Amino acid sequence: xxxxxxxxxxxxxxxxxxxxxxxxxxxxxxxxxxxxxxxxxxxxxxxxxxxxxxxxxxxxxxxxxxxxxxxxxxxxxxxxxxxxxxxxxxxxxxxxxxxxxxxxxxxxxxxxxxxxxxxxxxxxxxxxxxxxxxxxxxxxxxxxxxxxxxxxxxxxxxxxxxxxxxxxxxxxxxxxxxxxxxxxxxxxxxxxxxxxxxxxxxxxxxxxxxxxxxxxxxxxxxxxxxxxxxxxxxxxxxxxxxxxxxxxxxxxxxxxxxxxxxxxxxxxxxxxxxxxxxxxxxxxxxxxxxxxxxxxxxxxxxxxxxxxxxxxxxxxxxxxxxxxxxxxxxxxxxxxxxx
Length: 339
Hints:
The protein is α/β, with parallel strands linked by helices.
């Protein structure tokens, strides 16, 4: 399967204070849930364990004048304040959706056009050992090179949502993924995000991992060693400079690479090369295996694209892919927690 690769947001640094979704929204939903008699119960999960998933959890808009008490969702004990480190991984206030009543989660899902609330992933355990998928090896390669894989080895009924390039900067995507607490990972191409770093800094503040997808999205095997190095290591430098962390995950454009690609990636800090086992579009899915079924640990690819290119906005794309994920009994987990 070949990848289909291809409005600025006000800049707020990755260390700016975060919060949960607008409390007025949640309060209204809770009142509605209590009124329906459905405000208590057990949150729906993708497994039978006691855990819940990690992912984006803090709202993308300025904090309300009055903060909740420390230790409460959105309170000072649950997230970093101004000056917090840029690299926080999943925010300390993540997994909050697991604490909400099922009716509130259902109401949030309905608000965003989902028939069902997203399932809640179990908490990650020890990171699995990942090796290169058979058939994806490079000539002369060995176990010292970053592994190239399409599925994370896990028995958890989780999949991983990834978005490439960065052409579309839709504020509603940030709001939707935050309120629904759906984690995802971004693989950024600098020529698509340059001048709009603030949007992706905000995404990072909400728990999104920002990873390497080269400077200009070329076909890497057609470049010289030095040209590949500029594309890969140059993007490493820019992401570190702009967002405070040097990525350890790299996705080559179109999923194409050679031995030089992996050796260069390793030389500038890359630890793993996640490709994908399924690709999501607003109106359909494409499958590497061809059977239309997700498997535990599958990586799903989609793109930051909007209505001009796909005839749908990012929220419509997310609704479509989440229907497939949820209908097949999977939750979305955070890739960086497993790799």
